[in-house]
Amino acid sequence: MKNTSTRRDFLKLVTNAFFSLSGLLGLGGLFRFFSFQPDPGPPTEFELGPIYEYPKGIQVIRLDIPAVIQHTDEGIIAISLVCTHLGCTAEENEDGEGFTCPCHGSRYSKSGNVIEGPATKNLPRYRIEEQVDGSLRLYTK
Amino acid sequence: MTHPSRIGSRRSLLLTITILLGLGLLLFAGTVAAAAPVPQTTETPFATVTPTFDLSRLDEPVTADPPGQIDRGAIHYWGVCMACHGDYGQGLIPEWRDAFGEDKDCWQSDCHGPDHLPEGFQMHKDNLAPPIAGPGKLARFSNAFELYEYIYETMPWWNPGSITREEAWSLANYVLKLNGTRPDGLVLTDTNGFAIPVHRAVSLPDAEWPGVLTLAGVLVLAAVGMVLQSAIKRAYTSVVLPKPNFVHHLHPPSIPLLQSRFRYTLGAGGIAVFLSLVLLVTGLLEMYFYIPSPEHAATSVQVITTLVPFGNLVRNLHYWSAQLLLIVMTIHLLRVVLTGAYAKPRRFNFLLGLALLVFILLLDFTGYILRWDEGIHWALVVGTNLLKTIPIIGENFYRFVMGGPEPGPAALTRFYAWHIFGLTIGTAILIGWHAFRVRRDGGIAVPPPTERADKTRITRFELLRREVLAMVIVGIVLLLIAVLIPAPINQPISDAGIDTSDSRAPWFFLWVQQLLKYGDPFIWGVLVPLLVVLGLGLIPYVLPRAKVEELGRWFPRGNRYAQILVIIVILGITVLTALANLPIFK
Hints:
A: alpha+beta, 2 domains, 10 strands, elongated, B: mainly alpha, disordered N terminus
């Protein structure tokens, strides 16, 4: 009787181990299932049009990126308008000098530097490249 | 200039020239075009080439043997499309026009092979063969299906409509490769083309069968362990009362051994519960990827099936559990009638079971509709138009179901809500009630009269063990079916309609579709099926029932009429289904 009981216990242990293993396999599959991301995410390249549309001194707001394109002394530059605080889109001030975030009031200078918090980081620049046909393309990555 | 074909006979002369003029001549040669066309040593789609042009670019692509879809695409591209779109999809840019020799045109170069006109062949009037590979290209296409459709309908521009659908698929596949967004091993079809993006590289999930076979193998070992345990000791008479738990009611401390005889119950009720649980779990998983909108529904189903790791398995499990559930429930119904088990006090539970069958049929139908692809298009139209044929209330009932005058976004949302919520909640309540009543009405089944004196009992753990064993076995079978047989899928519903559209009802309603051929749609499509359900529901109340002494055995004398009736109904439905499948009736 003692013997039988031990054998039974051993079998029970092995059986439960197999069930646990199958559960782990299922969990692994579940993890991979949920890891797939069907969303492509936002585009990382934007056409800005021909270079001659950006004469010296111009400032163009592109809300679809969102970014501001400026032709300054450095040349044509693009500054992100995504507030570095929590991601709202900063808006151009009425005087055209600098930007303010509508959500928590962060203020940035015209060149994207923080003037007033809560944001602590300056607005980042985006890369712009001139294409062979003379048009400009902006890269967010 | 020395003609290349005469190099052999004038080797010494060429050598002399080379020595004399050296590098200067070589540089010069780069800017001066050849006076005569270069004869071809290898077969290429071009007869002439500017000498600076690297001839190996025109070589026939090396392909696998036997060629797969991508190889056929590569060959086809090389033979037809490359002339204008370039060897790497660069389009008809100056660099590529060198391939056409002196005139940088197709005029002399036989670039269209047998289709080349004897009097020559001019390039596209605007010389516009756009680049089809690289960043920013093919911007108008978002998925491989759109690309395929465009190629099929418009290419090549000088003879659109001349390529087959399969050739168009192979070309779309090759264009993805040129763009570097083709996942390895991709074979495009209209049931995965919507899931494959043109501009974003995705990868196809690994094959499911190794994982599934591993899981099935482990479960087999676990099942063997369970069987061996019972072989060692059958502790049926153990009366140690365990603590109550959530299965307390359905699993009392002990039940008579003879109540759970497989050859009497067939385990159909338990298996149905297990299949329902599988449906619940896999359905919840599908909800994480399914998008219930007419534009995205079928595409998201293709994404689940094609791209999501184990998504195909989950969908196949859901589909096959649903189909099996209908069969298992039918067997359950047959068992209950053929053993007369619905006799008092189980008459009401028979009705609950019948209601469950109706709910599951509705769940099967709504789930089928959620695919929202061409495979379900006509079943949706016909199935819901049947509601309109009901006198007086028909039109309003249709709008109640569809949320509008025709199938659209509102209808899809309603089917979705009914499927995942309304009908599911109703079914869950009915399952609970049905199982509760089983115990209330005296347990799983009455033992046969000769053995009712046998007082042997099994513990709830033994009962649970048997149930788990049954689940494991059914689970393994289900896994194997799901990994081997794909669930049906089709391309999204398009307004234009397509020729591959399936006009048949889902298999479980084929009998109704067959009935509809016999006459008035209200009578044959609504009234007759309702009468069938009503007739089954009246069995315990109208027809003679088996006596208590007869219960516990198959085919008691007492309810012969009911047995005959249910067999006639099942046979009738089977025959009608078979008729609907015969080609002459299509």
